[in-house]
């Protein structure tokens, strides 16, 4: 076993690897860029070495810097995590030349499976079913359009060295094939330093299901079941689960056998993942093999009881697998939600800045429930524009799928993040979606169910009862505290009013409260309009961000943040502003005019903090609706900004290379 390893990564995966290494008694070395000097993985490791400036191309992607850090610290092995150098055969070879062990597969396997064109040929030879497509290199957009037409639309345009949804586009016609080829080629070059592109048939109504494999250097190779990864946005996974609610035992076994066959074909040694596209009839086709640890590996760990990082380390140290295929059993159900620094109500655009408050739910493990949070940040940490927007991976486990989903809903409600926008409201909304809960999934789920983007869901009658009751309890607790203030001119009567009006968003609800009982835990009976009374109990204190208690006997955890003359409540994906007032105040407020919003219809605003990659227009140019105006890069993704209507460009305020803030004016129309 190794005495010291270096982690050639950052963020949550670096922290995750350090935890296992410490449990095994292995010393750890962290590397960091200037932007990560105060990062959590740097604090957790036994040693830390600076490797360069903030951009990944000048730090985490510099092989020489990583090797020099290993030399300086005497690290015997390097774990690459995922992303960055994790699937670079040249990096593995460079380590081996220095006598440093790469904790992962051998260069041949990385090279063979890292090239999507080569990997599909090997898969076909190994008897693995593959998707029809053109596996040769494509020279230009014209050839791409011709090949796509021959295969038959729709097609998937992919970067050969791609991953994580980058360098990937779906084309439904010739024009989209041309544009998709150019965009994929550009993203592939900037993300992977390899702009080779290939095209394959796009399987409609697909599911994305992957098989985890594990192999050693002694000829042993097994699979650890599957993960369902169909909930994706822009080809980036959002929610994963293990096992899949779609597979039967026969399909699971067949997919596992083919995944193992592919791993054996390239003499795979380590943990790896074979990804498949599965159609509605459970026909499955090889997609790609990721020769590294997957982001979503925790769900497999939760249902198998194995530590995949530990297994990777042991295999790299020359040990045999301590178990056989028949020893692997899947226990219960696990779900992972990727918590991203992105604003779901603004088209999921990246959000950067400082985490002014970061309080994840408590981790636990019992016989019928587990909550796990893999993270690389803390309160006060900064989310940088230079790296992936992931904040954390929140996982839950329970004996059944429904119980695991309910546990995830509760955990998301208790996950407090302030300072930046994040996607927790969207994740919470997904957990309540009937189609998700039924397991009726495809990779088009988000596009189909949220065609116009995400907006905070409108609360139904039951949710209105809950939200109104919470807001009223908070206001009564606040008013009681003021009434009991020692500096009052007149003593408190000890009585709170019975009739109130709660304004949720733009709707007013008459409410009556009976028998409010102050104390360590408040309790009251609340009636919303003409409905049945509900009993409310809570231990909420002013200043708390979490409201915990019961509403009509149901446990509730909601987040409370102060607003002008009211509070904002975040619960189950709902984000509502609540104002509690006396009836006569509500009548007067209803007469107040609403403030008009500023007119920005003649401006193109930057939707996220990012870098101007290109400007496709000039002053005086006429443009049509849908025409590309500019390309903004943020967190390693290119975002194309298009004209919403016909018009003429009057002023351009930005230049290529400018770093823009949210809502910065890029250009104006006449």
Structure description:
Helix content is 27%, strand content 33%. The protein is α+β, with helices and mostly antiparallel strands. It has a nine-stranded antiparallel β-sheet, with helices on both faces. Helix 4 packs antiparallel against helix 5 and helix 7 crosses helix 8 (174-192). The longest helix is centred in the last third of the chain and has 23 residues, at 461-483. The N and C termini lie far apart (69 Å).
Q: Strand order, biggest sheet?
A: 14-13-10-11-12-15-23-21-20
Number of helices: 17
Please give the number of β-strands. 40
Helix share, percent = 25-40%
Proportion of β residues?
25-35%
**Overall radius of gyration:** 27 Å
Distance between the termini: 69 Å
Structure classification: alpha+beta
Uncertain spans, ≥5 residues at pLDDT below 50? none
Mean pLDDT value: 92
Sheet of most strands:
9 strands, antiparallel
Anisotropy-based shape: globular
Features:
670 residues, alpha+beta, 9-stranded antiparallel β-sheet, 8-stranded antiparallel beta barrel, globular
In short:
By secondary structure, this protein is an alpha+beta fold.
Topology:
Elements: E1 4-7, H1 11-23, E2 27-33, H2 40-44, E3 47-52, H3 63-73, E4 77-79, H4 89-97, E5 101-102, H5 107-114, H6 116-125, E6 133-134, H7 141-151, E7 155-163, E8 166-171, H8 174-192, E9 197-201, E10 207-215, E11 221-233, E12 236-242, H9 249-265, E13 270-278, E14 284-290, H10 297-304, H11 308-316, E15 333-340, E16 342-343, E17 349-350, E18 353-354, E19 357-359, E20 364-365, E21 370-375, E22 382-383, E23 390-398, H12 401-413, E24 416-418, H13 424-431, H14 434-438, H15 445-449, H16 461-483, E25 499-504, E26 507-517, E27 522-528, E28 534-538, E29 546-551, E30 554-563, E31 566-571, E32 574-581, H17 583-589, E33 603-605, E34 610-615, E35 622-623, E36 628-634, E37 637-642, E38 647-652, E39 659-660, E40 665-669
Parallel strand pairs: 1-2, 1-4, 2-3, 4-5
Antiparallel strand pairs: 6-9, 7-8, 7-9, 10-11, 10-13, 11-12, 12-15, 13-14, 15-23, 16-17, 18-22, 19-24, 20-21, 21-23, 25-26, 25-32, 26-27, 27-28, 28-29, 29-30, 30-31, 31-32, 33-40, 34-36, 34-39, 35-38, 36-37, 38-40
Helix pairs in contact: 4-5, 7-8, 12-13
């Amino acid at each position: 076993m190794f005495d010291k390893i270096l982690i050639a990564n950052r963020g949550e995966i670096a922290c995750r690897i350090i935890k296992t290494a410490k449990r095994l008694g292995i010393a750890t070395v962290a590397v960091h860029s200037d932007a990560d000097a105060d990062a959590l993985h740097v604090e957790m490791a036994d040693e830390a070495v600076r490797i360069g400036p903030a951009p990944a191309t000048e730090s985490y992607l510099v092989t020489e810097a990583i090797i020099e850090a290993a030399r300086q610290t005497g690290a015997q092995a390097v774990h690459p995590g995922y992303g960055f150098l994790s699937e670079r055969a040249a990096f593995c070879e460079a380590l081996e030349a220095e006598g440093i062990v790469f904790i992962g597969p051998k260069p041949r396997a990385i090279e063979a499976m890292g090239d999507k064109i080569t990997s599909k040929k090997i898969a076909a030879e190994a008897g693995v079913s593959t998707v029809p497509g053109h596996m040769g290199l494509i020279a230009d957009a014209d050839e791409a359009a011709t090949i796509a037409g021959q295969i038959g639309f729709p097609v998937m345009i992919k970067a050969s060295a791609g991953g994580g949804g980058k360098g990937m586009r779906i084309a439904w016609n010739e024009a989209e094939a041309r544009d998709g080829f150019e965009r994929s080629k550009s993203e592939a070059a900037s993300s992977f330093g390899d702009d080779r592109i290939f095209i394959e048939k796009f399987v409609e109504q697909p599911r994305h299901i992957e098989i985890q494999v594990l192999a050693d250097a002694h000829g042993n190779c097994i699979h650890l079941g599957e993960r369902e990864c169909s909930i994706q946005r822009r080809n980036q996974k959002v929610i994963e689960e293990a096992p899949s609610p779609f597979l039967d035992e026969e399909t699971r076994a067949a997919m596992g056998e083919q995944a193992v066959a592919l791993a054996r074909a390239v003499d795979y040694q380590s943990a790896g993942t074979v990804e498949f596209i599965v159609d509605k009839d459970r026909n499955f086709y090889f997609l790609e093999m990721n020769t590294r640890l997957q982001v979503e590996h925790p769900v497999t760990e939760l249902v198998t009881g194995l530590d995949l990082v530990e297994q990777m380390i042991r295999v790299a140290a020359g040990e045999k697998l301590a178990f056989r295929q028949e020893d692997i059993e899947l226990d219960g159900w696990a779900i992972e939600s990727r918590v991203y620094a992105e604003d779901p109500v603004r088209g999921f655009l990246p959000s950067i800045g400082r985490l002014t408050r970061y309080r994840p739910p408590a981790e636990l493990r019992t016989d019928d429930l587990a909550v796990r949070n893999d993270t690389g940040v803390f309160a006060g940490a900064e989310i940088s524009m230079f790296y992936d927007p992931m904040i954390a991976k929140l996982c839950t486990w329970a004996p059944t799928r429904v119980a695991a989903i309910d546990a995830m809903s509760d955990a998301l409600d208790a996950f407090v993040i302030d300072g930046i926008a994040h996607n927790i409201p969207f994740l919470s909304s997904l957990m309540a979606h009937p189609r998700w809960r039924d397991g009726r999934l495809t990779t088009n789920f988000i596009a189909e169910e949220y065609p116009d983007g995400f907006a905070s869901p409108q609360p139904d009658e039951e949710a209105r009862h809950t939200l109104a009751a919470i807001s009223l309890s908070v206001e009564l607790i606040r008013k009681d505290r003021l009434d009991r203030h020692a500096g009052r001119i007149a003593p408190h009567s000890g009585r709170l009013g019975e009739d109130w009006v709660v304004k949720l968003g733009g709707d007013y609800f008459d409410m009556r409260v009976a028998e409010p009982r102050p104390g360590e835990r408040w309790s009251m009976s609340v009636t919303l309009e003409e409905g049945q009374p509900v009993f409310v109990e809570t231990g909420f204190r002013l200043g708390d961000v979490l409201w915990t208690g019961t509403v009509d006997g149901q446990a509730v955890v909601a987040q409370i943040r102060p607003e002008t003359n009211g509070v904002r409540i975040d619960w189950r994906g709902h984000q509502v502003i609540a104002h509690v007032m006396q009836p006569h105040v509500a009548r007067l407020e209803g007469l107040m005019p609403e403030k008009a919003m500023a007119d920005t219809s003649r401006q193109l605003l930057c939707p996220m903090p990012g870098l101007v990659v290109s400007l496709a227009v000039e002053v005086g140019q006429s443009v049509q609706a849908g025409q590309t105006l500019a390309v903004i890069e943020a967190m390693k993704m290119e975002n194309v900004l298009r004209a919403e209507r016909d018009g003429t460009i009057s002023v351009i305020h930005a230049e290529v290379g400018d770093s823009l803030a949210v809502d910065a004016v890029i250009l104006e129309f006449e």
